[in-house]
Structure formats: C-alpha cells, structure tokens
Write a structure and sequence with these properties.
single chain; alpha+beta; nine-stranded antiparallel β-sheet; about 30% helix; globular
Length: about 800
C-alpha cells in the first residue's frame, strides 16, 4: 500500500492503530495517540490530530515523530511480565504491550499499544520492524538510500535543488580565495596542483600555500610527507599568526637543497618563528575514542532486554571510567594552547599528526571556533566543517562504519568534536549564534547514511561517485582519473544531498531553533595584524627558529625537522634571558597566559567571561574552563533516552506528570525555598546555610573531580538548567492514578532505578541572548606585519 507521509510517497509494510508514543520532556511529556507505520525507509508515527500532508509542499524525509530504519540499533518488545530482544529470526510468544526502539543516535522511542489495538497488528508491526531493520551492510545501505531518495519524484526534486548560497563550500578556487580575503591573509595563494588528485589522493583539489612557492617546486614537496599531505594553510588570526596542518615526515627521504628551501618557506609562511604542535602523544587515538563512546552509550542507555542498569551511587564513577570527558578536556586544552599561541602574532603554528586526518581536524576546528566569531554562526560553522573535515579528507565513511566492514577503523571522532563545541556553547552561550538544537541535529544526521558529506573519505571519492571516473596509465603522467565524454552518474544510484540541506530533514519549526537572534553592535576599531606583541617568551628567538610544543612546554628538538638533524645549527639554540621569573621549564600555556594578562587591550575593549554583559572584544579566544565542575555530559544528547531505557510505565493523563518528573519538580521547589531563605534579605541562622554550601557538590566524583552537569561558575542563586539536581533515589512505586490504564499487567518495578528528573520546559538558561561579533561577514583587515609578499 502506498500512502503519502510527510509529502513523501512510500510503500507501507505494516501499520498499527491506537498506539501511544511516549513524549520526552522537551516535547512536553505525556503520551501522544496516533497510528504507527513501518515502511521500507522508516518507522513513522502520525498523531491523530496531525493535518493532512500538502501534496504541493516540499518533501521532508523524517517527521518530528519518525525514526529511520538505518538509525535503529535494536528492537525490544515488552510484555506483561517479560521483555524480549526481537530479531529477524526471533519467535514472539506473547503479545507486546510496549515497543521500544533503541537508536544509534542515543534516542529511545517507546510506543504503547492500546487495549483496543488488534493483537495481530501489535505482533506484526513488531516483526516487520525487526525484519526490515537490519545491521547495515553495503547492499542494505544502497537499498535504504533507494527507499528514501530513489523515487522519480525525489530524484527530480533533488536534481533541481539549489545549495545554500550564503555558505562557503570550499570546493572551488573562488571559495578559497574568498576565505583568504575574509581573514586578511596576505602572502598566500590557492594552488590547483592537485586538481586531478595526482599529488595526494586524500587532499582536496585546491590547497593554500605561500605565494613564493611555485607549483613546479610544490610538486617536489609532496613526497616528503605521509600520503602526500603537505603543510597547508587553514586560518589566519587577526593579529597576524597563521594556522597550518600537516602529516608526519616520510622517513629515509633525501632532502635536496631546493627541497629544504621550499619546505621551510611553506612551514614559516613568511613569519620568523614556527611552532610545531605534535598531536600524536597527547591526544586520544581513534581506538581510545571508540572504546570511550561505546562505554558511554552503554552507561546512558542500559539494556532493557536484560533489565541491567548502573545503580545511582555508581553512575558518576562509571561515567569517569569511560574517559569520554577526559578526552573532551584534552581536546579543549590543546586547542586553548594553540589559540593562545596564535594570539601572540608573528609566527606560524603547525598542527602535526601522523596521517593528518583525525585530531588535526578536531584541534584546528576548535581553535577557529574559539577565536573566530564567524565560525560561531550557523553558516560559518557549516563552512568550517566543510573546510576542515569534509574537504580536508577526514575518513567519515571509515570512522562511521556504515557498511560494518571496517570495525577496526570505526571511531566517532566527529562526535567528540561536537561535544567539545557544546562544552564551549554551555560556557559562552551569548557568544554563539548557533544553538544546542543545531548541534544535536548535526549529531543525529551523522548516523543517517544519506548525505554525501559523510559517505566518503575524501573529495576524490565523492567525485568518483558523482562522475563515472575510470583510470588510465601513461609512462609520463602515471595513473590518472579520466572522465569519459558524455558520462553521467549511475541512474540506479540516487543523488545524495549534503547534510547542510536542513529543509530536507527538518520542519521549519525545528529549523527556527538552530539559531538565536541578535542585533549587530557598532563596528569597533579593527585590530591590525602585528600591532600587539604578547609572546615575549618566543619573540627574542633567532629568526628561523622552530619550537616544539608538547605537553604544555616548549622545546627545541634536534630531530624536529629531518633536514636539520644532521648538524648543530644556530637556529636551534634556546631563548636565554638574564632576568625575570620565567623559565624554560615553566609550562608553555602558563607563560602565555601570564603574558596575555599583562597585555593592554585597545581602548574600548574589555575581556568578558561566559557571556557577562559589557564591551566585547571579538578577537579574544573563548578559553574554556576545564576543571571538573565546568565540564558536563551533553544531557540533551546522551541522556535523552535514559528515563525511557530505565523505567517504563503505562500512560496516565496527559495533564499529569510522570512520577519521576513530579518528584524532580518537588525537589526543585525545595531548592528554590532554600535559595530564598538564604538570600541576604532574610535573616537566617548560620546552621541553615551549611547544607546549602555542600549541596552544589552532591554530584562530585573525587577520583578526577568530574561532574555530570556543569556547575555555575559565579556566586549567586542556583539555576536549575546549569546545576540540575542529581537525585540518589531508591526504587519507587509510581503513585496510583485514576486515569485508565492500557493493557494492564504485572510489572517488576524493583529492577529499575530513576536517575534524572526532566527540567520544566519553561526553565531558561541564564543570559542566553546572542551578542554577535561586529559584522561577521565583513572582511578582516589585512596584515601590516611581515608577510610573504613583502
């Protein structure tokens, strides 16, 4: 049967009537009645009062209450006295009362069958979903894409689709030139020497290199680096420093005199100093990230099929053992060090990783989010991901492992980056135009194998899919990709849209929450490159000096550059001073922060912390607070299915709160009364204030001072959104409700624990207004300091 669901015509495999969907606290709580459908593409829930789809409206892939089959990880049927994990080969010997869908994006969807729902419909739709959803394989991924995008109407719609003109896609030479002009980067040019991917198969067609290096000379430098990933320009700080990234040097390569000259021209970029930041030793490996994320998923979701969940008193210690927050803290710390270095001016900072395809993406992106207000807007952030991840050759297809054929390479590095951005957004909400809803939408889209942004490991693979590329060999040119004349993409493969086509994924109401409005203030006096000198520890070094920043300290390793390791060149001497309290053994970040504190800001600029009101300096980096109370779990993402996974109850009146939510509300009322009683306007004995002082540390883990939720960093009344109550509750029996229950049956409530109460939707985060940087689309001033062109 073919019906129209959300303006997309699909083949309905099975349906069930009189079904109730459990709503999350963000959706208003309670239960929503409607009809449940299963198609070749998704599980769709259509509420009873939903309007009829408009045939003339643009199609939306997923409704607000839908889930794609590719996002489902397991299907659980809940009966009167048991639960069962349902697979394609399972035999269900009871009529399910509840259907629970565990999703790869950490959602848990609960559907309750009414007593009037035919038993055959409840059993059949459970079986149908379990048989239709399959562990992703190459064949199933293609069939899933055809089910979603393969119809004639959808192909025609996508072929006429125009991409966002406000966003920089970084897939053409003018796009890169626009970025150079926006950042005011002088002395750099866009090279197309890799336009056929001959120099490096994983690098994009266009790369930014110094103007003094010709393409004929540039070709000789690719052989000196792993996978040919040469040092490339990423971004220029308004104070004149440049950020580069590169892979490790190749071993046993003979460095000719001309090669050495070109390599040093690229590394220094016209500056007198170069700092190489080695990311291999300090940053987590992809294997570490995958293991931490797997443990975090198990902690947040539990397993309803075995009724196993972590006790309340062990939750925080278990969270600490996942090491996910440790890796988040590590990435933020390293990005803060690099941001402080770039603020000094007159140097290049080169991020180095063995393959330059994982942690360099994370750190370079975080540095730009911290320092560039444009990257904190929705359009700017999308361009940042497009530049530093999609075009830079991050192995999305291997790291996501859609086909389940590269388990050893699977690692959600991109999700770790999104978590780091969320931590910055929580600490500086008014400095971001994008919102947490936008980050959450990008997190969920990451798990759908529908978007060209995530279905390839590099630009070359995307080009091969969009064009029928064959290879030819000649003795002079070697292997080359050849586009046959008149060739077109395989008509059997549906066109894959980019992930940034939000109108194809979400309704207009959901998209409105991706940004927060704000008015542009008056344009301040620009800070020209080279005006300030805030790095005295390195400024007196000899020209051409190369430093290594590792574990927070500077060093001058003789093996840092292979062509310099043969002799004791004078450029490798350390910077010696006759006086002062600084020392080479002092951590580098601490010295930079000390120099930064002594720097006089231009008139009219003051530094602000965490969105406090006052004059804003858009050129100062957003340095995160990294201590335990300041980093928390991304609650809207990781814990949105926690209550569903740990406690199930039959529906009560839509106007009645869930027992756990009711209890959390009562606890919050008591907290508000305590805050009112301890206010300076009331005379309260000192004894009544003692519990108030220890209340903020209820969720502290003394192992590494990691907190589940970020605490308020300024003294004042406790705000529930920043320091929600952490409850250590014993198993409880929900109060008896007068509302009629559907499919009543015995339920062992002692197996479930209630961890978290949902905050009221009316609670607001303090000072969430967006204060945008002056004229984000304006061009940054060009450098007056040293450059390659001078």
């Amino acid at each position: 049967k073919v019906v129209a669901l959300c303006s997309v015509r699909e083949c309905v495999l099975q349906r069930a009537v009189l079904v109730r969907k459990k709503l999350t606290a963000k959706e208003g709580g309670g239960w929503l009645s409607g009809t449940l459908f299963c198609t070749h593409f998704r599980v769709a829930f259509v509420p009873q009062d939903s309007p009829k789809p408009d045939d003339n409206a643009d199609p939306v892939l997923l409704g607000d209450h839908d889930v794609a089959l590719a996002s489902i990880e397991k299907v659980v049927a809940v009966g009167p006295s048991r639960t069962k994990l349902v697979t394609a080969s399972s035999s269900l010997k009871f009529t399910p009362e509840e259907l629970v869908l565990y999703c790869r994006d950490l959602r848990v969807l609960c559907f309750l069958f009414d007593r009037l729902t035919p038993d055959t419909q409840a059993v059949e739709i459970t079986y149908t979903i379990a048989k239709t959803y399959q562990p992703l394989k190459p064949g199933t991924v293609l069939s899933f894409q055809n089910a979603a995008l393969g119809s004639v109407e959808m192909k025609q719609f996508l072929s006429n689709r125009r991409r966002d003109a406000q966003m920089n896609w970084f897939d053409s030479l003018p796009d890169w030139e626009q970025e150079l002009e926006r950042t005011g980067a002088c002395g750099w040019r866009v090279s197309s020497v890799n336009d056929r991917f001959e120099m490096s198969t994983s690098l994009p067609k266009f790369n930014v290199v110094p103007q003094k290096v010709l393409d004929t000379e540039l070709k000789k430098t690719f052989a000196h680096f792993n996978e040919g990933r040469i040092p490339r320009w990423c971004w220029r700080h308004p104070r004149g420093s440049d950020l580069l990234r590169m892979a490790s040097f190749q071993n046993n390569i003979y460095h000719e005199k001309d090669d050495i000259r070109n390599l040093e021209l690229i590394l220094f970029g016209g500056q007198s100093l170069c700092v190489v930041v080695e990311l291999g030793d300090e940053m987590p490996s992809p294997t570490d990230i995958q293991l931490a994320h797997t443990r975090l998923r198990a902690l947040c979701l539990g397993d309803i099929s075995t009724s196993v969940s972590v006790p309340d008193d062990k939750w925080l210690s278990t969270l600490e053992s996942t090491h996910w927050l440790d890796y988040t803290r590590c990435c933020l710390r390293k990005a803060a060090e690099v941001a402080c270095l770039l603020r000094g001016g007159h140097l290049t900072v080169v991020l180095q990783e063995a393959e330059d395809r994982d942690m360099t993406c994370v750190v370079s992106s975080l540095v730009q989010v911290m320092c560039d207000p444009h990257c904190r807007t929705r359009v700017g952030f999308q361009g940042l991901v497009q530049k530093e991840w999609v075009m830079a050759g991050h192995r999305f297809l291997s790291r996501i492992n859609y086909h389940r054929d590269s388990d050893k390479e699977e690692a959600p590095v991109f999700l770790l980056f999104l978590d780091c951005v969320w931590q910055l957004w929580v600490q500086y909400p008014s400095r971001f135009q994008l919102t947490g809803d936008f980050l959450l939408a990008l997190h969920d889209s990451f798990h759908l194998p529908l978007f060209s942004s995530f279905l390839a490991n590099c630009q070359r693979e995307r080009c091969k899919r969009s064009q029928n590329l064959s290879q030819s060999y000649t003795p002079v040119n070697g292997w080359r990709d050849v586009v046959p004349r008149g060739s077109f993409p395989d008509p059997s493969d549906p066109p894959l849209p980019p992930v940034w086509d939000w109108a194809l994924q979400y309704s207009s109401q959901r998209r409105e929450g991706f940004t927060q409005p704000g008015s542009l203030p008056a344009l301040p006096q620009p800070l020209f490159n080279g005006n300030l000198n805030t790095n005295p520890e390195l400024s007196d070094s000899a020209p051409g000096s190369v430093f290594l920043l590792s574990r927070g300290s500077f060093s001058c390793s003789a093996n840092l550059l292979p062509w310099r390791s043969g002799g004791g060149s004078g450029v490798y001497r350390k910077s010696h001073r006759r006086g002062g309290s600084s020392s080479e053994n002092l951590p580098g970040l601490e010295r930079l922060l000390k120099a930064w504190a002594l720097t006089e800001l231009p008139q009219g600029h003051t530094t602000t912390i965490s969105g406090l009101q006052g004059p804003l300096d858009p050129y100062e980096p957003l340095l995160p607070l990294l201590l335990g109370p300041c980093l928390g779990v991304w609650r809207d993402c990781y814990l949105r299915g926690a209550l569903h996974a740990q406690a199930f109850s039959h529906p009560i009146s839509s106007s009645t709160q869930h027992p756990v939510e009711q209890l959390a509300w009562e606890v919050q009322q008591l907290r508000d009364k305590l805050a009112l009683a301890s206010s300076p306007t009331n005379t309260v004995p000192a004894k009544t204030q003692e519990p108030r002082q220890t209340d903020s540390n209820l969720n502290q883990n003394t192992n590494n001072s990691t907190f589940l939720f970020p605490a308020c960093r300024h003294p004042g009344p406790v705000v529930s959104r920043t320091t929600p109550p952490i409850l250590n509750l014993q198993p409880m029996v929900p109060p008896v409700s007068s509302a009629p229950l559907s499919r009543p049956g015995p339920r062992d409530s002692s197996k479930h624990t209630f961890l978290f109460g949902h905050p009221s939707s009316s609670e607001a985060r303090p000072d969430q207004r967006y204060y945008p940087a002056p004229n984000n689309n304006a061009k940054l001033p060009k450098s007056n300091g040293p450059s390659l062109g001078s």
